[in-house]
Amino acid sequence: MSDRKIFAGPRIRRIRIDRGLTQSAMAEALGISPSYLNLIERNQRPLTVQLLIKLAAAYKIDIHALSHDDAPLVALREVFADPLLAGELPGEQELLEVAQAAPNVGAGMIKLYRAYREQAERLSDLSDMLAREGHSTALASTRLPIDAVREVLERRPNHFPALEEEAEAFTRLLQPGDELGAALRSWLQREHGIVVKILPVATMPNWRRRYDRHSQRLFISERLSPFDQLREIAIEACLIRAQVAIAAEVQALKLGSDEAKRIARFDLARYLAHALMMPYGPFLTAAKRARYDVDVLRSRFGVSFEQAANRLTALARGGGEGVPFFMMEVDHAGTRFRRAGAIGFPHARFGGGCPKLPVHAAFAQPGQILAEAAEMPDGATFLVIARTLEGPQGAFTERPRRTAILLGCDIEHRDAVIYADVLPANDPKRSETRVLIGPACRLCERIGCLSRAEPPITRPLGLDEMVTGLSAFDFQ
C-alpha cells in the first residue's frame, strides 16, 4: 500500500448516499465516530489503511477506485482546454473539486461539451454544403485566431497589388542580379547595421529565424535549406522596409483580434518575400514559356518547389494573369493547414477534403510528382498535381518533418500546363483517365466509394441487415 495520503471524502459520501445510509449508520459499520466520518467526507482527514480495508469488506468496493479514478478529471481538462473556455479557470484545483465532489455534474458537463463539439462539426459541414450551392451562411465552429486568418486569406485571391509594387520598388533599389541573398545582406548591414549569421543547431535549436535587437544580428538556423534561409532573410528585410504597406494590408483584412493581425502580418511578409525572390513579370513570362513546370521555375529562380508552387497561385494581376492555380498543403495525418488560390481557394467547387486526392498518395512516393484529372460529382474536372516537401533538416535521432503540396487548376487550362501531357491520350474526358472525387466525405454522395471515411450528413444511413455495401458507411 502506498504511503501517499488518500483524501476521498466526496466518494465516501457518494457510497453512503447510494446505499441510503446515515453518517451514524456508516460510522458504526466502520467502527469510527460519526464526527470523524464527517471530517473524512469533508476531506479534513485522510483514509487510513484500516478504513480502506473495512470499506472494501463492508461495501464490496474496489480500493484502487478510491484513489485512481482520473478519467473524469482528464475529460474535464479537455473541456476547459477548448478556446471557448480557455482562461475561465485559474488552476486545476477547481476541476479536481468538481470531479470529486460533484461527479454527476462533471459527467453532465462532459456530455454537454461533446454534444456541442459534434453539433459544431455538423454545422460546419452544413455550412460548406450550403456554400457549394451558392447560399451564404454564418454557421461556423469555434476558431482560433490562426483559423480566422486562414479563412480570410483562403476566400480572397492570393494577390496583393500593393505588396507587388513594394517588391518591385525594393528590387530596383537592391539591383540584385543573380545574388539576391548577397544584396539583402548588404542592404541590411548598410542601411540598418544588421549582420546576418547562420547558426548551428546546438546554438539555436528551436528557431528558424531570430533577430537580436541589442547586438543588431539576424540569426538563421542551419537546419533550413538554402532556399528557406534566403526566404527568412527576405522576410526580415521586408518586415523592416515595407512595414507601412504590410500594416495597411493587414488592416484591410478586418481581423478581429491582435493575435490574428500578428499572424496575418507574418503571412503577408512571406508573400512579399516570395514576390522579391520571384518578381512578377519575369516569373510570369518564365512560367508561360515553361508551361508552368514547377521544377524548371524552381531551378531558374533558385527557389524551392514549395516556393515556386506558392508563387504560381499569386499570378492574378489585372491584364497580366497566369493560369489561376490553387494550392493546398497537408501533413501525414491529412491536416490541411495552408490553402490559397489565384482567385481564392475553390471551397465550393473543389473542397479539398477527399481522401482520394493524390496529395495523400504522394507520401508513398516521396519526391515524385503525381498528376491526375479529378472529377467532382457535378462533373467539374480539375488538373491536380501533388508532391512531398521536406521540412527543416532534423538530427539523426529526430523524425523528419514531411508535408505534401497539391497544386490544381480547372481542366480547361490543360493545354497551357505541361502536367496534362501525362494523362492517357491527353483526354481527361475519357472515364478511364479520371479520378472520381468529392469535396469531403460528409458532403459527398458517391455510392460504393472504397475510400469513404465518414457517412454523408445529407443522406440517412442504410441499416439493412441483409445487405452490406462496399463502402464502410452505407447510406440510402
From TrEMBL:
Any one cellular-component term (Gene Ontology): cytosol
Keywords carried by this UniProt record: DNA-binding, Transcription, Transcription regulation
GO MF terms, alphabetically ordered: DNA binding; DNA-binding transcription factor activity
Location of the HTH cro/C1-type domain: 12-66
Record-linked PROSITE patterns: HTH_CROC1
PANTHER family (UniProt xref): HTH-TYPE TRANSCRIPTIONAL REGULATOR (PTHR46797), HTH-TYPE TRANSCRIPTIONAL REGULATOR SUTR (PTHR46797:SF23)
Family the UniProt entry places it in: Belongs to the short-chain fatty acyl-CoA assimilation regulator (ScfR) family.
Record-given protein name: Cro/Cl family transcriptional regulator
UniProt organism field: Tianweitania populi
